[in-house]
Amino acid sequence: MKRFSIKVSRRSFLKSAAAMAAVPLWYAEETFALPQTQTPKSANDKPGIALIGCGGQGRGDCSIASHFGNIVAVCDLDENRLNQAAEQFKVKNKFKDFRKLLECKDVDIVITGTPEHWHTMVNIAASNAGKDIYSEKPLTLTIAEGKKLVEVIRKNKTILQVGSQQRSEQNFRFACELVRNGRIGKLKNILVGLPTGPREGPFAPEPVPDYLDWDFYQGQTGPRDYTHKRTHYEFRWWYDYSGGQLTDWGAHHNDIAQWGNGTELSGPVEFDGRALGKPMIEGGYTAAAEFHIEAKYANGVTMTTTNKAPCGIRFEGTEGWVYVERGGTKYSHPELEEVKFDDSKDIRLYRSNHHMGNFIECVKNRKDPVCTVEIGHRSISVAHLNVISVRLGRKIKWDPVAETIIGDKEAEAMLSRPMRKPYNYSFIGL
Ligand SMILES: NC(=O)c1ccc[n+]([C@@H]2O[C@H](COP(=O)([O-])OP(=O)(O)OC[C@H]3O[C@@H](n4cnc5c(N)ncnc54)[C@H](O)[C@@H]3O)[C@@H](O)[C@H]2O)c1
Fold first, then answer.
1. What's the pLDDT tens digit per position in 374-418?
2. How far does the centroid of ligand 1 lie from the alpha carbon of residue 162, in Å?
3. Which atom number of ligand 1 is nearest to the Cα of residue 78?
4. Residues 1, 4: Cα–Cα separation, whole Å
5. pLDDT of 126-170, one tens digit each?
6. For residue 302, how far is its CA from the centre of ligand 1 (angstroms)?
7. Coil, helix or strand for 349?
8. pLDDT value of position 43
9. How far is the CA of 303 from the centre of ligand 1 (A)?
10. Which secondary structure element, helix H or strand E, spans residue 83, and what is its range?
């Protein structure tokens, strides 16, 4: 967002403001009618927002963001989706290559709505171009990416909100505050219920549609034969691009588990995971569909992650439990619902009641949003470690301080992945 005081004539300022904001001059005259020395509080003072990755979620985020700023550019490497988004948000600036979009001076904020194998590359490039970022979860494809991203975001003083919007929902915060304030006694176990993923295939190769740049889409991964089952929405069922439900819903629920446990900037020290259900089908989806993982934190709390429990997070303590999900909250004792916290002595958690609104506010005041890059990185680290343990079918030990796997070279190698050229970091000039 531009921060400027006006040294030009009022009329010429209004003319250029009207042009930049794509509003008629009469509107600018009414809206921007401010004394010359003031910072304008006008349509033109709203941040310019760009969407990279115009799928269902990206466009949903962008619609919400449009209440806070001006949508000025869109980017997708699927031409059909690009055109649909341009029409929806009434923008002329359309890009296939996000690097070109990032050159636009009128873009202050980027919404990253690509699949996760592109998140880090887009987010680092956006940060290096001076943009603030609302990035969809899962924040990264690997833990190595997360470590790099944290460094870049902090070095550049970028405001980055991770799209783990459950943090801005009152019932999740309340459940975590109950736990953090000992209202269920001493926390013993966290039961994380995730949906079951699909176990389908094999999928026959298909001709690449002329509207999609399949090589670019695959980016650092592959190369693989094209099937539409590897792209829009379905990408999440492939280990190449994602981690199935363990990372998809895992990103959301691990985030709340860590918040309630007070370990948002850390993680468990041990993961013991197994894949369940039907074995993988050759030529079919490659992410685990059913799973059971027992993890342990250094504070003695255990965490069970399973597709056999209701989708949500159940905090189990010595004196009760609280179960929280998107539909609401259940309590072991009805009086827990009535708990009123005392600001002077209880632990109160970051209060955000609107995830995008909180981000935009932080873009203005340069403070940390409710789901920072570190928090998002640590939440998805838990999910990545679950995936690694399930894929290997054995226990792994994790050092959350050094962020390394202990005594298992094969597992350690899975903290990063080979990046296919030219889509390694040199693609964004690193
Ligand atoms: N916060 C939530 O509750 C929530 C819900 C759904 C999805 N998501 C997340 O949002 C992201 C997108 O999910 P979706 O379901 O909308 O996926 P999608 O497949 O429908 O959309 C992704 C879009 O990104 C485009 N794309 C891929 N690589 C690109 C690149 N390098 N540059 C530009 N565009 C690129 C694709 O062509 C596609 O149009 C995922 O990471 C997903 O986990 C979050």
1. 999 999 999 999 999 999 999 999 999 999 999 999 999 999 999
2. 14
3. 37
4. 10
5. 999 999 999 999 999 999 999 999 999 999 999 999 999 999 999
6. 32
7. coil
8. 57
9. 29
10. helix 79-89
390 in Cβ contact with 273 (< 8 Å): yes
pTM: 0.91
The Cα diameter of the chain in Å comes to 71
Instruction: Determine the residue type at 91.
Output: V
Buried b / exposed e along 362-385 (16+ C-beta atoms within 10 A):
bbeeeebbbbbbbbbbbbbbbbbb
Please provide the CATH number assigned to the domain covering 167-351+374-428. Answer: 3.30.360.10
Please tell me the distance between residue 120's alpha carbon and the centre of ligand 1 in angstroms.
13
**What would the two tokens of residue 339 be?**
């708990």
What DSSP line would sit under 260-287, residue for residue? Answer: HHT-TTS--SEEEEEEESSPPPTTS--S
Among candidates 136, 140, 172, which has minimal Cα distance to 64?
136
CATH number of the 10-165 domain: 3.40.50.720
| Percent with pLDDT over 70 in the chain | 90
Give the C-alpha separation, 361 to 117, whole Å: 28
> Please, where in the chain does CATH 3.40.50.720 lie?
10-165
Ramachandran bin of 418, using left for φ above 0, alpha for ψ from -120 to 50, beta for the remaining angles: beta
Residue 264 in tokens = 């948002």
**Residue 47 is encoded by which pair of tokens?**
């941040």
At residue 374, the 3 state secondary structure works out as: helix
Among protein residues, the one with the nearest Cα to ligand 1's atom 15 is: 233
Please give the DSSP secondary-structure letter assigned to residue 227: -
Which residues, judged by CB distance below 6 Å to any ligand atom, belong to the binding site of ligand 1? Answer: 52-58, 75-78, 81, 98, 113-116, 118, 136-138, 163, 165, 217, 219, 232-233, 235, 248
Q: What sign does the CA torsion over 11, 17, 21, 22 have?
A: positive
CA 140–ligand 1 middle distance (angstroms): 13
Q: Which atom of ligand 1 is nearest to the CA of 165?
A: 1
Ligand 1 closest atom vs CA 97: 32
Tokens of 310: 């209701």
pLDDT tens digits, 21-70: 333 332 333 333 333 333 434 556 799 999 999 999 999 999 999 999 99
Stretch(es) of the chain classified as CATH 3.30.360.10:
167-351+374-428
Residues in the chain: 430
